[in-house]
Amino acid sequence: MDSCVTAAIAAREHSDLAFLHANYGQRTEARELRAFRELAAHFGAGSTLVVSLAHLAAIGGSSLTDVTVPVARADLHGRDVPTSYVPFRNANLLAVGVSWGEVLGASSVYVGAVEEDSSGYPDCRQSFFDAFAAVIREGTKPDTAITLKTPLIHMTKAEIVRLGMELRAPLALTWSCYQGEDVACGVCDSCALRLRGFQQAGYPDPVPYAVKPDYTH
Question: Most-buried pick from 51, 59, 85, 143 (CB within 10 A)?
Fold first, then answer.
């Protein structure tokens, strides 16, 4: 959902879009790839790239990539880094995006990261992206000028839902669940954050759920 709304913002600001997707052995890899293809078609992406970051699954350490580690039930008040954290995943994704962007001559790399309403991932913080922006400046050609954009970074999920509705982003095409591919579970961290966002924003979530707890209390 966050990437979709970010794509809608990018489409408002640029006419030539390139969409990047990574398969990294996540439980819902097939469903996420389907969402990517449908979103790229909706936004009329001029270029698409699907890459394998299978080493993240080989490394393990996350309930998203290691089937022996159960996906935890949502804890929206927790302060610890959850088991769904994929070690340093965003750095891997950004490295690919910047490499491709440099070849394309891109002016910006957009990332749908959210700090305030995320699951507590260390690589979703503003400070992480500020640091990576410095890495881009240091590690690319002198004539490369890629700006790292995180337009949702300080928004809540409810604010993101409202913005998505305002931009007519196709939220029905998105998928957030950590473990279900046909029906979202409704109880993992990602489902809970998403559902709470829709509930607080006052809109029905268009994707199917096994259960829809009230996360507003």
Answer: 85
